[in-house]
Amino acid sequence: MSAQKSVLFDAPGPKAKRNMAIGNAIGALAVLGVVAWVISGLAAQGQLTAAKWSPFLDPGTWQFYLIPGLLGTFQAAGVAILSSMLFGIIFGLGRLSHNGPVRWFCGLIVEFFRAVPVLLMMIFFFMLLATSGIFDPGEAPFYGVVIALTLYNGSVIAELVRSGVYGLPKGQREAASAIGMTRSQSLRNVELPQALVAMLPSIISQFVVILKDSALGYIITYPELLVNARRLGSGEGNILPALLVTAAIFIVVNFALSWIAQRSSVFLSHRAGRKVKGAEMTEIEPAAEPK
Amino acid sequence: MDGLTEYFDAYLSLFEEFDVLGAFWVNIQLAFWAAIGSLILGTVLALMRISPVASLRWAGAAYVNIFRNTPLTIIIAFGVLGLYAQLNLILADDFDLNFFRIAVLGLSVYHAAFVCESIRSGVNTVPLGQAEAARAIGLSFLPAARLVIMPQAFRGAIAPLGNTMIALTKNTTVAAAGSVAETAGLMLAMIEFRSDVILMIFLTFAVGYVILVIPIGLLTTYLSKKLAVAR
Amino acid sequence: MRNTRKAFAAMAAAAALTLTACGGGGGGDEAGGGGGGGEGSSESIRIGIKFDQPGLGLKEGNEFTGFDVDVAKYVANELGYSEDQIEWVSTPSATRETQLSNGQVDMIFATYSITDERKQQVAFAGPYFVAGQDLLVPVESDVQGPEDLDGLNLCSVTGSTSAQTVKDEFAEDVNLLEQPGYAECVSAMQGGNIDAVTTDDIILAGLAADPAYEGDFKVVGNTFSEERYGVGLPQDNDICEDVNAAITKMIEDGSWQKFLDSNLEGINFEPNAEKNPPEPDACA
Predict the structure, then answer these.
(1) Closest chain B residue to A109, measured at CA
(2) Hey, are the CB atoms on A112 and B149 less than 8 Å from each other?
(3) Is the pLDDT reported for residue C154 higher than 90?
(4) Beta bridge pairs of residue C123
(5) What domain range includes position B145?
(6) What ipTM goes with this model?
């Protein structure tokens, strides 16, 4: 990327350098202008007063609202990450099966759940569980979030697994069958492990999606970070600052995860000594899909 | 048999009470305008990220990292509680239309980050020689980008752009958080009204989205094959 | 190959660790609601309240405050439970009936209106307060009632019917904004683009009494519905009479007025005097 970037334009001469300095200044001014508009607007409305922001310096705010909220987010996201990995591996292998009906069924499930909005699934499973009485209704929001995230992201991971296996050199499968492995042995023991490693960066990016989408859980009252921030804001009368702080926490956590995805892709492409297909893609596009 | 007829009668009677097609039409409009908005903004961001001006590159990267990592719900909520309620940003005289446009703005701003990254991945597919050749015939950055790099980059970026557009279509449901009457809110209201036919209600909306999303997927595959740059 | 396996195993182990750590951390304390505990043990009582309504039921740090909370503490005390035997559970509107009938909570004090429809699934003691739908407006506003809202902007909570009532029965041309909670509505009204917020008068009073908004808003005081707040109980309970007796005692010994005053301090709010304090209904 960097090599290509510099090739798009010549090394700047004195005139170009001057133009760039002007461009830099204009760009910086434009950004500062927008920031200033937002800040002065919020200040004029009394949104930047100490009363609205000082609660975030109070340890109690973190102890009773934000940390429990973040743990709630991690708990739902953590379970959803494990279960969607499981779902993805099972259905991804199912789509590679030699058995027609199995392949067809897994394809149908994966395509269906990839097309349905996560929010609709959350509302459906929440309402279903809350009224059915199978679970403790207090647990319904948690399961609603986890099931919806699993079905959607599991389907995306299934596709990643499938494309990871497709992306492997043909020789791997041929070598496996040459030493007498059956098709499914070869898939399980040779192709799947390599496919997972090759797609690891994309899979980690999908974890960012899971983490971010868990915030939709606030619509079905799952006590994650956003719900707790809203509770804090309801009591302190600082809903807007609470939203902004929540956004900042999400950005930091997701940025860390994306960074891991990027590192792992660099590490993997060095280690493998060849270009890993999936890794190359995601190096510049860490989140394969917005949702 | 009777039980089944009754079940479907109860289900069908819902359509007299609730305007399901109307709600889908709102989501389609949201998706349409937000697609235009995010494609324009995303292209500008992609240009910024490959431009020779350092501050533009930096601003583009900051934008992408901030908006890609923020939950869309928070962006939409900020649109209503921050931009509208505190900063007096009013995008239409009509009250409901105003929130529709704020939702379009929120969706555009969020997905522009993904459009930008898709285009950048498309730029990656353009061989170095193309850029070198453009420079060799004396094109400076903007003409080179406009005439040589971008047309090829868009063609290489069709698959990830298609995925972004599919995600955008589904994400229009989050506009429910911004006081826009659309499918997610309607589905919730219908389930609360008739929880005994909850499964059919969900399947109705789910199939609706499958029908919306599949053509985008097919179009993406068709275009990415048809427009693939032969190298 | 070996390395691949190892990397994968390490990944799985790390994920499992994270998971157990989170599970043990008790992130979803109120979602779990104590989980396994046996139903209705004499050791403690589980009371459902709202967690996000200032003045009525609010989680403040580790404490719970509000009128509903004070009433619940008083009633629980009369039933023989001290304050530290109470386990507070969040009961959002959508799941109140199910939480009661599944035995996840023993009683609910959560702005829970007694209606015939709900009586089919749960039982009620009380009422302990009679609220009515009203409007919260900026102090300088001259809105006198729902009829004045034509052409103005009204905020209410997503899925609540109260805003629709105003539009259908009083002011056809009112603009409706739906938000996930009343706190969002009030925050938007503070910004100046929203003219009124509607729901039950006591909820509005609780919002207006919040120190963050002191003196900014007033409750119009012209109620246009009747909401009788009861104590939600499971259908097959044997404590309804005791709860009613506790409510009567609370009203007679002045605690009821005291709870109302202390929670809605700093705002000029008078509950509908004709209907308050109410007399509990006979138990079914």
Answers:
(1) B210
(2) no
(3) yes
(4) C233
(5) 21-226
(6) 0.89
